[in-house]
Design brief:
heterodimer; A: about 450 residues; alpha/beta; D-Maltodextrin-Binding Protein, domain 2; 2 domains; 20 helices; about 45% helix; B: about 300 residues; MetI-like fold; two-stranded antiparallel sheet; 12 helices
Chain lengths: ~450, ~300
């Protein structure tokens, strides 16, 4: 290169640099902007001084959450607790980034990949948060939960799902079990009775179907819904929890009879016409709405759905009842449930205001059960709640669900909370396929086993 | 160069910013994708270089990949063989028989400006089973054709065609607009001269419109082909690739692999494949049309 071209090139590069710096500068907070635009190489150093936890400068905490729905009790609770905290700590501002579950999952993965995480984010338990923990993205919360007696508020054992190598990385917003909601008036109309065994359930399905009533609503476009139900069948045919753990430990394979029996039982349900037509094109909300609008007689879901069903039209005059998932072929114990430890709050390790963030989260979680109780959303929390539910106006159905929690004698986690994401996807699409095509259970088992071995690390 | 009376370096200097931008925005991501395709990586943790293993698995041992490629080309095929000729036909009819064309053309164009999410939801309700108020099935039942009713979006053999029809419907107006504009740009005196020579109606179309519309038609073909290869949004909204991969196309497999199965490396390998197919397709289409151009001129 000759001299002129070098000069030209350097001018161009400087120009580009200036443009890119100016672009970066605009994302910073207002008062910093002039510095950023000046392209002063020392400006990053000036910024770090703000990060020291003792400083009384204004601090902004980004709180990514999955409560964007204003009708959800959690929406109101979140805003109330945040404004309380801000009133008590005038130097802290909490910025909410409220997204739908799927959007949040995607956004967080992208943010994690580029190491630009919000201070607080949402993760799912066990196997689903494993990759993030392995990548060392979260700050341990061991010391933080000891403050203000926060640890004692959690149900025993629930924090294990968020603990890796002795370090606690997230605090759950709930602890749910799977159950079946049913529409009493539709059952009455068809003359069906509430099933106590899987075989009776299939009879009820046929009776309802004969009267032109959709027996079970499901949102199988979101394939975890069908998997959740299938795993409950497996929990029964296996005679108890721990099938997937046995597979992971190498004691059994998916070709085990417990698994193929579960596939057969599940298929008999599908073949009896249990689910609405075109179930695989209904997403989670559309599926749940079928039940909420009284168009389907039963709905299998985690207890988190209680609040939504309680406030829907179908639930008027105590029309909705609940029952435990029945035994299958005489096997299993109805008091063993599909367990769903809730999505959980994790703190980014690289947070600029780690001390403030931990302090805020502690405050938030201590107040969480109280506020949720007031907002009538305290069913299925991971923390103990004090208060008289009946007197506070919770419905009979909600009380029934709550009593079910007292019967819980262990259970299994959902498939995607137990297995790695690759295997989970193979499983989800394999189960989804059962909704549209009859398949030999041995072939389904083989498909699972192959998917599991390919994705084993 | 001599004509411009400026040195090559000056030209280079003026081209450079744009070139840099282009390289950064287009070529770097492609190269990075190809490199990522050689990693075993979940997108967030540590990665391991595994050479071409992802590509070998994709081409030889993935039960989902090739059917998805097949469906992608099915989409492209329908688009080229059904949508474009139909669009051309409608464009010719409009330009010949309709006085005030703007209303008709805009109505055909309307679906293009609607969001895909809206279109997906709309057609989902149209395709619903009769018991859920699906329009098509209800009409069939009313006509006494109960045996013709289907659960359009959930029967694995039909679902992909149901989606193709929506895609064709949505972009028909787009291609009508392009080709209609092309026809309008053909000078009227050519038709008048042809009329004197006795070429009217379809004869005029055969010998004047078709040859002169070729360059415009090429734009339509490239757009619809590349568009079909990249189709993703409609499928995500309507079926999410299900039931059990029955409506998966290349882009949806790529998405599922990268973000749901968390195999970012494998997803990148699929992405690289898609890029190569798109480039190849553009080259081939250009080559074919250049020959066609020569034949007519």
């Amino acid at each position: 290169m000759n001299k002129t071209s070098k000069r030209v090139l350097s001018t161009v590069m400087t120009g580009l640099l200036a443009v890119s710096l100016a672009a970066c500068g605009s994302t910073n907070n207002g008062n910093k902007e002039s510095k950023g635009a000046a392209a002063d190489p020392s400006s990053p150093a000036a910024e770090t001084s703000v990060a020291s936890p003792t400083s009384k400068d204004k601090v902004t905490i980004t709180f990514q959450n999955i409560y964007p729905d204003p009708t959800d009790p959690k929406y109101k609770m979140l805003r109330k607790v945040v404004s309380q905290y801000e009133a008590e700590h005038t130097n802290v501002k909490v910025e909410l980034d409220s997204l739908n579950t799927d959007q949040q999952k995607l956004k967080f993965k992208t943010q994690a990949a580029s190491k630009e995480m919000p201070d607080i984010t949402i993760v799912n338990p066990a196997a689903q948060m494993q990759p993030f923990v392995d990548a060392d993205l979260f700050a341990p919360l061991n010391e933080m939960v000891e403050q203000n007696g926060l640890k004692g508020t959690f149900t025993e054992g629930i924090l294990d799902y968020y603990t890796f190598n002795g370090n606690l990385y997230a605090l759950p917003d709930g602890n749910n079990i799977a159950l079946i909601y049913y529409n009493k008036s539709l059952f009455e109309k068809a003359g069906a009775k509430v099933p106590t065994t899987f075989e009776e359930m299939i009879d009820a399905v046929k009776t309802l179907k004969a009267k032109g009533i959709t027996p079970i609503a499901i949102g199988e476009k979101d394939s975890w819904t069908g998997s959740f139900l299938f795993m409950n069948v497996l929990l029964r045919t296996n005679g108890g929890p721990g099938f997937l753990k046995d597979v992971v430990d190498g004691k059994r394979t998916f070709e085990d009879p417990a698994f193929t029996q579960a596939v057969d039982a599940f298929q008999s349900l599908v073949q009896a016409g249990a689910f609405q037509e075109g179930a695989t094109s209904f997403d989670y909300n559309a599926g749940e709405n079928l039940f909420k609008t009284g168009k389907a007689a039963m709905y299998f879901m985690g207890s988190w759905a209680t609040g939504g069903i309680e406030t829907s039209d179908v639930s008027k005059d105590g029309n909705v009842g609940v029952f435990k998932f029945p035994t299958v072929g005489g096997k299993g114990d109805p008091n063993q449930f599909m367990l769903a430890p809730g999505s959980a709050f994790a703190v980014s390790k690289s947070s600029k205001h780690l001390a403030e963030t931990l302090d805020f989260l502690n405050y938030f979680m201590v107040n969480y059960p109280k506020e949720m109780f007031e907002q009538k959303g305290a069913i299925g929390l991971a923390q103990t709640v004090e208060g008289d539910f009946k007197a506070a106006g919770y419905s009979d159905m909600a009380m029934e669900v709550m009593n079910m929690f007292k019967d819980v004698k262990g259970g299994d986690l959902a498939f995607d909370n137990t297995m790695n994401p690759g295997t989970a996807q193979v499983h989800l699409s394999s189960i989804q396929n059962l909704f549209v095509a009859k398949k030999d259970s041995a072939a389904v088992a083989k498909e699972h086993q192959k998917g599991y071995e390919e994705n084993k690390q | 160069m001599k004509v411009l009376k400026v040195s090559g370096w000056t030209i280079a200097a003026f081209v450079l910013p744009c070139l840099l931008l282009y390289v950064c925005l287009v070529f770097l991501p492609i190269i990075v994708s190809v490199y990522n395709g050689m990693l075993q990586w979940n997108g967030i943790g540590t990665s391991k270089f595994i050479g071409l293993a992802n590509f070998t698995k994709m081409f030889t041992d993935d039960p989902v990949f090739w059917p998805a490629v097949g469906r992608t080309f099915l989409l492209a095929g329908f688009s080229m063989l059904v949508q474009l000729p139909l669009a051309l036909f409608v464009a010719i009819l409009i330009s010949r028989y309709v006085r005030r064309t703007s209303f008709l053309v805009s109505s055909y164009f309307l679906p293009v400006i609607l969001s895909v999410a809206v279109i997906g939801q709309l057609w989902k309700t149209i395709y619903n089973p009769a018991s859920m108020g699906g329009m098509i099935n209800q009409i069939l039942v009313k006509l006494g054709l109960d045996s013709w009713t289907h659960s359009w979006l959930t029967e694995p053999k039909i679902a992909i065609y149901a989606i193709i029809i929506v895609g064709l419907w949505q972009y028909l107006g787009y291609h009508i607009l392009i080709q209609f504009t092309g026809i309008q740009n053909i000078p009227a005196d050519i038709y008048e001269a042809a009329k004197i020579d006795g070429a009217e109606g379809f004869k005029a179309d055969r010998y004047i419109t078709l040859p002169l519309i070729v360059p415009i038609f090429k734009i339509s073909v490239v757009l619809s082909f590349i568009g079909s290869l990249q189709s993703f949004d409609l499928i995500m909204v309507m079926t999410g690739g299900g039931p059990a991969h029955a409506t998966d196309v290349i882009a949806s497999v790529m998405y599922n692999m990268s973000f749901l199965s968390m195999k970012y490396g494998y997803g990148s390998a699929i992405a690289s494949f898609l890029v190569v197919v798109c480039l190849l397709a553009t080259v081939i289409i250009n080559f074919l049309f250049n020959r066609l151009d020569k034949r007519f001129s």
